[in-house]
Design a protein that fits this description.
Number of helices: 6
CATH topology: Aminopeptidase
Low-confidence stretches: none
Number of strands: 7
CATH superfamily: Gcn5-related N-acetyltransferase (GNAT)
Strand content: 25-35%
Order of helices and strands: EEHHHEEEHEHEH
CATH class: Alpha Beta
Strand order of the largest sheet: 2-3-4-5-6-1-7
Radius of gyration: 17 Å
Shape: globular
Largest sheet: 7 strands, mixed
Structural class: alpha+beta
Mean pLDDT: 93
Length: about 200
C-alpha cells in the first residue's frame, strides 16, 4: 500500500456516491418544529449566505467560487428546486437542493442543517421532506454524494435512510481557506497546511 501525497495548500477527501432506486415505503413524518419553504428562482444574495452558513464547517465552497451567471444558470433552471428549512422564528437554518436535469433521476445536490441542530433528529425530518419531493412521477433513481469532510455521521445517516453506496473517488482541491472563499478558522478539524511560499 502506498500513500498519495497531497500538495501543501490543497485538501483531499474521499467522495462516496450513494443511490436509491426504489421509492421507499410511506412512513410517518418525523416531528420537527421546522418548515420547508420553496425558493423559486432564489436571489443569490440570500442563497449564498445560507449555503455558507450550513456548509462552511465542512468546507463547502463550490457555489461561493462560481461566477454569478453560472450560479444563476443552475439555481434558476426550472429543473432545479431549492428549499430553505426555517425554524419557528422563520430564520433559515437548512437547505435542500434537488436537481432533476437528468431524465428519470433526481440528485440531492445539497442537503444540510446548521451544525447547532446536528444530533437532534431534525435531519430525519429534512430527509423525509427531500425524499417526498424527489420521488415524483417518472423518477427511477435518487442519488447524492457525501465525503469525508462532511459531518462524521453523514455517510451512515444516508445509509440508514435507504441509500446504498455505489462508488468512491478521491478529490483534491485548493484549500478554500487559503483562496479567501472561507475564513481561515473554518473547519478546524481539517488541518490547514500552507505552501512553503506562504509560511
Amino acid at each position: 500500500m502506498g500513500l498519495t501525497p497531497v500538495l501543501p495548500g490543497e485538501v483531499a477527501t474521499i467522495v462516496t456516491t450513494l443511490e436509491m432506486t426504489t421509492r421507499p415505503l410511506p412512513r410517518p413524518l418525523p416531528d420537527a418544529p421546522l418548515r420547508l419553504v420553496p425558493w423559486d428562482r432564489p436571489d443569490p444574495d440570500r442563497y449564498r449566505p445560507l449555503f455558507r452558513r450550513v456548509g462552511e464547517p465542512w468546507l463547502w465552497f463550490s457555489r461561493l467560487a462560481m461566477a454569478e451567471r453560472d450560479l444563476l444558470a443552475i439555481i434558476h433552471d426550472p429543473a432545479v428546486r431549492v428549499f430553505a428549512a426555517t425554524d419557528p422564528r422563520r430564520i433559515e437554518i437548512g437547505m435542500i437542493e434537488l436537481d432533476f436535469r437528468q431524465p428519470g433521476q433526481c440528485e440531492i445536490s445539497y442537503f444540510a442543517l446548521v451544525p447547532e441542530l446536528a444530533g437532534k433528529g431534525h435531519g430525519r425530518w429534512l430527509m423525509a421532506q427531500a425524499l417526498a419531493l424527489a420521488w415524483r412521477s417518472g423518477i427511477e433513481r435518487v442519488w447524492l454524494h457525501t465525503c469525508t469532510l462532511d459531518h462524521p455521521s453523514a455517510l451512515n445517516f444516508y445509509r440508514r435512510q435507504g441509500f446504498t453506496a455505489i462508488h468512491r473517488a478521491v478529490e483534491t482541491f485548493p484549500d478554500p481557506r487559503l483562496t479567501g472563499l472561507l475564513p481561515r478558522a473554518a473547519a478546524p478539524h481539517v488541518p490547514l497546511i500552507e505552501p512553503a511560499s506562504r509560511r
